[in-house]
Amino acid sequence: MQNNQLPTAPYKGTSDFLPDELSERNYIFNKWRQVLSELNYQEYETSVLEMSEVFKIKSGEELGSTQIYSFLDKSNRQIALRPEQTPSLARLVSNNFGELKYPLRWFSIPNCFRYEQPQRGRRREFWQLNVDIIGSEEGWADFESIYLATKLMTAFGAKKQDYVVYYNHRGVLQSFLKEIGIGDESLKQVFHILDNWAKMGESENEAELSKIMDDKAKNQILCLLEGMNREMDLWDDIVEDEFPAFSELGDRLSSILGSTVDLQLNPALVRGLTYYTGMVFEVFDTDPVNNRSLFGGGRYDNLLDLYGKQASAVGFGMGQVPFTDFLHTHNLISKDDVATRPTTVLIPLTNEAVQKCYAEKIPELVSSGVAVEIDLDLSRALNKRRESAFKKGFEAVEIE
Amino acid sequence: MQNNQLPTAPYKGTSDFLPDELSERNYIFNKWRQVLSELNYQEYETSVLEMSEVFKIKSGEELGSTQIYSFLDKSNRQIALRPEQTPSLARLVSNNFGELKYPLRWFSIPNCFRYEQPQRGRRREFWQLNVDIIGSEEGWADFESIYLATKLMTAFGAKKQDYVVYYNHRGVLQSFLKEIGIGDESLKQVFHILDNWAKMGESENEAELSKIMDDKAKNQILCLLEGMNREMDLWDDIVEDEFPAFSELGDRLSSILGSTVDLQLNPALVRGLTYYTGMVFEVFDTDPVNNRSLFGGGRYDNLLDLYGKQASAVGFGMGQVPFTDFLHTHNLISKDDVATRPTTVLIPLTNEAVQKCYAEKIPELVSSGVAVEIDLDLSRALNKRRESAFKKGFEAVEIE
Lengths: 400, 400
Description:
The structure is a homodimer. By secondary structure, chain A is an alpha+beta fold. Helices cover 41% and strands 20% of the residues of chain A. Chain A has helices at 19-38, 53-56, 86-95, 140-154, 170-179, 184-195, 202-212, 215-226, 229-242, 244-257, 320-329, 335-338, 351-367, 382-392; strands spanning 42-43, 49-51, 57-58, 61-62, 69-72, 78-81, 104-108, 111-113, 125-134, 163-169, 262-265, 279-285, 293-299, 313-319, 343-347, 371-374, 396-399. In chain A, strands 1, 7, 8, 9, 10, 11, 12, 13 and 14 form a nine-stranded mixed sheet that branches. In chain A, a hairpin with a 2-residue loop joins β3 (57-58) and β4 (61-62). The interface between A and B is large, with 94 and 94 residues.
């Protein structure tokens, strides 16, 4: 190393995208865009830079602020690189509240930043599709959100056995817990335990539940998770009496999507404690080596609360890295999918030939849908130039 | 205002893109991508976050570091939001130097940040197309760079009278200055004065020149700028004797592009002091109200110097905002250009009709290339729903 040499690696937790890597990512993004624009969803964008306060307060809580990249600008404003899109979406909608025509069917594919230790599938910079319907009440909009999530899967060729869609309603779960005697003061803790259920061991989960309820209530929760008849009957009664829209949702999902998608009610599904106010859902990879949640979403009718406005909302967020892993695991993406057009290289032997290439050959080939490159190194031997073209993988080589 | 309400404006100098604004920007970006991919240029991407050192040192100079958004991360690394793409490109190429197949024909459309007072056409966050050929010596590659710049103009319908392409070679200018007696120690100052020529008044420029040269040399520079015969003869002699490749470039430009593009040698064109080592060019808007440089580029064979490597490079950078202004000024973009597909709204009157829309009508319409939205608000009166559809601008409305 010379002493004035700089290090060449990208900043920790960020990635360089060489053309092959970027074209795969952009192929996925563009297919998302296509599926969404078919259903007339509109793309919006906010800046990666926001005032920190946009992220700091959410329903009165700090949102993992230790993970936020925040700093002071030169006028001492506290600014941050967005860790997620939803708070900026809320700000954007509030800023244009009166002029927008509801319901909004909107999406965005932002890069987001979190300050955490990089590991497989978790980088400091990551991309995430966000899809929302804003201004449409519980009902068909909830169905459409799940419908779209499954369209994004089937558009890439995912089959029924490749993934499961779990769905639930937090209100039903809450009523069930109250019905079996859990007091208001413990509800949040139970939600928290259920949300982390799969990450913990069985005995650990039971011990946590025992701290806040008697054995009878604990057993009823365990029976619910196992789908035992008595608890499911109670569950169904609650749905029928208090949540008719959720009852309809289940019917609609199975009758419209049931033949192509594996849809399963999961009464313990919570999807975090921060956002959701109603229906929640999760798309889960069934592959044994990659058996995990891919993405999910739900209804959050509190979107604009911090801005003193009211808008009902339902939507989901989907990380690019887990989705791409899913496509690779199930062999749903190949080099041919990603390539946009056939390629030809022209190897001119004289300056006159180069001139003819620019003036005539290129316009001609381009108009026939081919990507054309001219080998400009006239000083090299023809066989070397041919060899380079071969190594670069051109589909056609023309000597001029 | 309630006391917990947050401000809704985007952070100073950044923009929110509502769908209509974003679709115009993305239309432009995608047309750039199309033109470039036709000539087999490959898109790459680096992160907006870099270690600050990538930007701080360039040929031993500080690069406007007061304008850089830089901050310490939680491990006390000095990081920055990129103010431009080229330093990251140099880092990326150096990091993969041995594995890449040259010449690279690469492009990127990064968002960049500069800490400056926002004003018309200058925001703190801005997008910029960067197009480069790396690993191809002076000659046809220089031609191709200008050729591509003009393709990006004509692809949007720009006509010969809409813009001028000025070109020059810094080596020729340097030889000319030496020839008229300017010493090595003053060259940089003269370049600086010429680079800012249009921004200053005539008397100011002459006074600056007088500080570092005698009247005879000053007059020769003024005569060169006016294209006087004697000075142009000297210029032509230098080109013929020392810069045959640049002489050929002029011939090639006029014979291949001359009929469609207004190409003019501008012996005073410098394009900044930092990068360029040979040919430079600039695309200039001829519109009287918007009469200014749109974008430019040139050869910079020192791209990898800081990384202890050698690669010849030629390329250009083009800001999205001035380019978009150009399109609007010359009426080269309209709403119809930006719209991607015709839109239909389905207005179902019953839940059974909604179900039929999702199950049958949507797949049917989508496969015919239409974007379809379902009006889900079954509780509203039909005439209200029709009115909303009309206001939203759908091209077709179907009652189901």
